[in-house]
Structure formats: structure tokens, C-alpha cells
Amino acid sequence: MHKLDPRYSEQLFRPVFELNVAAVWFAAGILTPVLNAIYVEGETLIEAFILSAIMFTVAVVYGYKSIPLLDRQLRLTTNKMVFYELSKLRKTNQLDLRYGNDKKKKKKDRRSTYMGRGFKWGAEHANRAYQVADMDSDFSQVKLPFFLNPVAKMMAADTEKLGGAPWIHGMGNEEEQIINETNWYGHSCITGNVGTGKTTLLKLMSLNALHLGNTLLVLDPKNDKDWQATIKHELEYLGKADKFYHLHPSSPSTSCRIPLLNNYTRITEIAARVAPLMGNGPSSKPFQDFAYGIIYATSLAFKYLGEPIRLTSIQKVIASDRRGLAMRVMDKYYKATVGDEYATMLAKELKELNADRLAALGEYYIATLSKDSPCPAVEKMIEFALHDDGHYVKMVTTLRPVLTALTAEPLDELFSPVETEAVDDDRPIIDIAELMETGGCLYISLDSLTDGTTASFLSRLILAEAAAVAGDRYNHETDEPRRVTIANDEVHASIENNDALFNILSQGRAASMQMILATQTISDIASKTDQATADRFLGLCNNFISMRTTDPKTQEYVSSQFSKASVTKQDISTNSSSDVGTSMLSFSAGYKETLSSQREDAFPPTLLGDLPILQYVARLADGKKLKMRLPIIKNDDKEGERAPWLH
Asked: Which DSSP helix (H) or strand (E) runs through 442?
């Protein structure tokens, strides 16, 4: 019956009658020449063999027809671990075409990446899933042939280890899924419970990014050693061993260093990065606004003095040296405006204005110099340094702990490095802007298990630095710059007040930046912000990938990405009646079978909670809706092996 026929109903989990037919024809093919030899003494043995061959052919045909059904039914209860060699991944991702010396082959590079094995989820898979969902928990309606029982037992260990409902992936015929690079330009969000395979997927996507030639920036809250080793090894294979940089606060002696406030377009960006770290709320708004003002004033002063803007410098000034900074600004200004001997020349006037030298310099500037030689840095220093001490201490109460956390040892030397000849330190200082242009990987272990608050601060500042580079790229790059992939695990920990994150999500594509953001549930995002912000976050991620999740909101969102499908519903009714008062033969019976279709979730939400480990569903930017099995990448390189084009 044709699938367009309204009476069509697919039954893949029925008894495999084709196998019985094949067995009968096979037995007949064996018995025919045997019986011929016994009863007619082989007089027609040639004809018997010809007939037997025909019977074997029929048996093979029916046996072949039974294979898809047997495979589908076996996969109802079995699962397996899938491994994929690193060398094979490189071949699939076409590294030999991309980096080889043959220009003709380079033109064939499709710029695509391997994402595992799976299939496009459609209405037919939805119908099968609803059929299986109505079966017993032990699938007693499906009986495997005896010869498949040993196979099922061999796979039992993997099935138990991976957990979940293996039958979900058995709804379709899996094949390698090669995804075009342009899908990832629109950013990706990954959700999933702990231990379901998010980090394994992040490793695969990180390798794919390196294979495409992208710069990789990793924000890892857990310091996953396997993820680090995978990236480092691949860079070594690609001949870029010196382009792997690791920063870990718990291992400062072996970490690289990053000047976190090195890249900015306007001084206001510095204040906009640090002030929001205080938190957001109606009661904290005045304190945040005050912090913004004094951070801006301090940064403006350092720029005026020609000194680098560092977190440690800002912290020192705000904590105890605002008057000292103001005096240095005044000294430079007065020397440039009045002359090097201004202290002697203006001694009398300044003494008459105020006994406090800083206050006197400020008053003289306002009264005499500001009209002809205005200077924003001087004006801000007057406002900042001469602010009432009592009120100042009160207003910076919530800012001080933030700055202290960011400049405490060893963060002071890691994120506010001093590079002078007097300082003997061979740890590299990494400028994020330069790294993004030259390629490689900056792997930052945030160590959130020991200090989640500071890790959150650092994550936001690092993303703010990346956003500043993105803005500069967009404004000044003439040629298309190297693409940058930012992978951030447990992103919910750093999303609060993180305007930089949303700026990269909304405008990063124009600066050749793409993000891979992983969290456990959508509720984690909402709890750190609000539902509107969580919805905006999801809307900005054009690719949504989910491993197993038990969070109802996440399940509903994932299911909605697969829309609805027409699901066939079969209703069967029987009836019988008798009227012995009229006649002993007055008996009637009826049977009614009705097929109808109704719109249901194409991927039911509850299935998200039943996914085995290392399986996921995905809605991609190009519209594909996939059910996938994630492989474990296995390193099969020989020791010291390098890419052939390097030789």
C-alpha cells in the first residue's frame, strides 16, 4: 500500500513473517534433493537441484527483506559505544584538501564538519515513537529470533552503561552527518544533565573549529584535562604546538598571563565592564552608578598619564590612592599648561585659595585655567579625589570586594601583568586581539569549583575583552579576519549582567566570531537572569543541541523546535449480542477498525529525559532536525606524528 493512501499504517514491530517464510523455503531447498535421492534414487536429481536453487533464491529474497525489521527490533533494547579515530575525523573534515599544496584539491573543500551518526527526524519517526511508547516496558510484544539473543547479550554491558531508552535512536537509519560550516556562524547552545556527554560534544566541536582554521578561546569552569589534552595534541599535529596557551589560577607558575583591560575603543568601556560585576537590582543601582563614575575617572587619569590600565592599579587607587593619582594628574597638567616651575610661580595664589594643596590646585584650575585649557582628566580627578570621605567609603563598600577578588594573589599577576625589564618573568603575556589574528588556542580554566564568584567575574571580563576585539575588527578590518570560536561551558554562571556575551551573540557574526555555549538547563539561565533574558539568549543561538535533560522547561523548548507531526491513530472496537428470547440462532457480532491522524509533538518532551548518554537531538540553523549518536574520539596517532604537509 502506498504511503499516501489514507489507509496506510506502518507496522515495523510486528512478528517478522518474512523470516519464517525464508526459513521454510530454505528448509525446502535442502529437503528437495535429499528426498529425491531417497524416494526416486536420484533419477531427477538435476531437476531437484535446479528447483532447490530456486527455493534458496526465494529464501534469500525473503531473508533480505527481514533484515531491516530484525535490525529495528534489535535496536529497541540494545545500544553500543561508538568510537571514531582522530585520523578518520581529519579525513572526513577534509584537512588534506584544506592545508595541502594541491590548489585544485583545495577548491573541492566543502568547509564542513563531522558531528556524529544520526538521521533527520521526521513524521515517520514520530509515528514509530508513539507506537513503541504504547508497548510494555519490557517490549513483550516483540520477540527476537533465538539467533539474535547472543548478540543482544554481547551488547548488554554497553546498553546498561549508556542507560536511557535505546529504542529512540532505533527509529531511523543512521548515517554520518556532515554539517556545513555556515551553520555555526549563528552560535550554538548545548543543554544536558551532568554526565550525559556535553564535554565530549564540546571536544568534537573544538577539534572541528581547529580543522577549519579558527582561533579557539575556551572558558572551562572545571579544568577538564582530557579536553585540554585533545586540543593541545591537535595543535601539535597541525604544527602549532607553540600556539596553545593555558591559564589556570591554581597553577600560576605554569600559566600564561592576560592583561584583561588591554583592548578597548573608549575609556567608558572599562567602567562598563567592571561596574556591573557588583550585581544588579533596584537598591544597588546608585552604588553601581557611583562605581561606574570613579572607575571611569581612574581609567581616564591613567590614559592621560600614559600608564597602562590594570585591575590592580584601579583597585589600589580606589582603595587608598585617589589623592595620589589626582596629584600626579595635576602635576602633569600644570607643567604642560603653566610650566615646570608652576609650584613656585603659583605658590602665593595657591596658599591663599586653600591650605590643602590638591584642593587649591583644583580651585585654581576651575577659576583660571579651565576656560582656556580644559582637561577632562583633571576635572574628573577633582570630582573624584575631593569627594566627601564619609560618603565615598559608603558608596564603594560593594565595589571593594569585587576588585579585591580580581586582584588577590595569584590573579593580580595573571590578569594584571607588569611587563618591564625590571620584572624577570618568562611566562608569556597573551593579547587576545593578537591571538585571534594569528590563530591557536587560549584555554582558560576558571576553577569555579573552588571560587565560583571570582570565576564568574573573570568569565565576564574575558568575554568583554573579546567583545572589544570584535568591535575593533568590525570597525577597522578591511579583509575577512580569521574566524574565532568561543567555547564556554556552564555559561549560566557568567550570564548575569553580561552585556558583552549578548553583544557577541547579536553582532559577533559580523566580526567573524561564533560561540558554543553549554549549560545544563534553560531554567539555569532564567534563574540567573529572568525569563525574558533567557528567551533572548535562546533566540540568539541559531543552533540548539540537547543531550538528556529532565528539566520540564528545557524538554518543552526542545520539543517545540521539532514542531508538530501527523500521527496515525488506530481505534479498534468489537461487539457481540444475542437474543435467546427470539431464537437460539439470534446472534450477531461486529468488528470495527478506524484509522485517523492528529497533530502531535514530532519529538515528545518526555523522550528528552530518556535519551541515553552520548546521544542528542539538534535543531540547526539551516532547518535540519537531527537525532544523533555522539562518538568518542580515539587518538590513533603514532607518537610524534605530524601533518604530512608539514614535511
From this structure: strand 441-445
